[in-house]
Fold this sequence. Notes:
Layout: E1 2-3, E2 9-12, E3 15-19, E4 32-35, E5 38-43, H1 49-55, E6 69-73, H2 79-87, E7 92-97, H3 100-112, E8 116-120, H4 130-133, E9 136-141, H5 148-159, E10 160-171, H6 172-175, H7 181-194, E11 198-204, E12 212-218
Amino acid sequence: MEPTGWAGVYREGRGLYTLNARPGERVYGETLRTVDGREYRQWDPFRSKLAAFLVRGASEPGPWAGARSVLYLGGAHGTTVSHLSDLLPDARLFVVEKSPASFGTLLALARRRSNIYPLLDDAQLPERYSAEVGPVDFVYQDVAQRSQAAIFIENVRVALAPGGRAVLMLKVRSVSQRGSSVAIVREARRTLERASLSISEEISLSPFAREHVALAGHR
C-alpha cells in the first residue's frame, strides 16, 4: 500500500484506498485490506465521483487537503461522504440531503462516525442551515437538478471562507436533455466564473460517470 500525492489517499495496484476510520466496517460493500496492521477501504470510482475525479487526473494534494470544515451538498447514502470522513478525521463534515429515504442511511452512518453532521434540508435554501454550518474550507456538490450551478454559487457565497476550495460535479443531462454537452459545461463554467470563482480544473468523469464533469476552483 503506497501513499499517493492526494492527501490521505493510498494506492495498491490500480485501486485507490482510504485508511478506515472504523476498522472492520464496510459502508457500501467495498473491499477491505489490512497492511502492516492498518486497515484500508477501497475507493471505487464507479461508485464515487470524487474518486473518479482523482483517477481522471485531479491535481494534488486534492481540494479537501487541510480542510477543517466541509459543506457537502447531496450526500445521498453516504458513499463519498464516508471516504471524506476517512480523509478528514478531525474535520467537521456538514452533509445536506433532502430525500428522507437517503437521509436515513446517512444518519445511520453519522451515528458511527462522529465527524459527520447530517442535515435533512434542501441545498437550494442554504439560509436554513448556514448559521449552523458557519464558514467552511471546502464545498462539494453532487446534486441532480437543472439549476445546479446556481445552487452551487449560492452555497459558496453563503458558506465558503475566503481562499476556500469548491468542487461541482456537474450532471450535464440534469441541466438539459437535448443541449450540447460542451455548451452546457461551458455555460456552467462561465456562470461560476461570473460569481468570482476561479476555476482551475475541468475534468470529464467518463467512463466512471457518463455525462458528468467536475469543475473545481477556489474563491
